[in-house]
Amino acid sequence: VKLYPQYMTNVRVKDKAAVLADPEVLNSLNEVEKLIDGKGRALLRQSGTEPVIRVMIESESEDKCKEYAHKIADTIISQGHQAE
């Protein structure tokens, strides 16, 4: 088993379900999965206790993890899902 660096960022949102149903957010997630190309993983998950979406990336380098996580988080924000 090869272990990859992992990075997670949280985005406080108005509606967790709406984020996970947003086609643009899902498109961003799919793009990142293609960039990872089987050498890691990308995960979007609702927090069970907070109005937060967790964006977790595993990839070959820590820099790529951060880049990919922020790409998805930026899409969530640009789509207007971020809570005030």
Concise account of the structure shown:
With 84 residues, the protein is of the alpha+beta class.
Could you describe the 3D structure shown?
With 84 residues, this protein is of the alpha+beta class. It contains 3 helices and 3 strands. The chain has a 3-stranded antiparallel beta sheet. Helix 2 (23-36) packs antiparallel against helix 3. The longest helix is centred in the last third of the chain and has 17 residues, at 62-78. The N and C termini lie far apart (41 Å). The model has no long low-confidence stretch (mean pLDDT 96).
Distance between the first and last residues' Cα:
41 Å
**What number is the mean pLDDT?**
96
Structural shape: globular
**Helical residue percent band:** 40-55%
How would a crystallographer describe the biggest sheet? 3 strands, antiparallel
- Unreliable residue runs: none
Number of strands: 3
Compute the number of helices. Answer: 3
* SSE ordering: EHHEEH
Gyration radius, in Å: 12 Å
Strand order within the widest beta sheet: 1-3-2
Structural class: alpha+beta
What is the strand content? 15-25%
Task: Supply database-style keywords.
3 helices, globular, 84 residues, three-stranded antiparallel sheet, 24% strand, alpha+beta
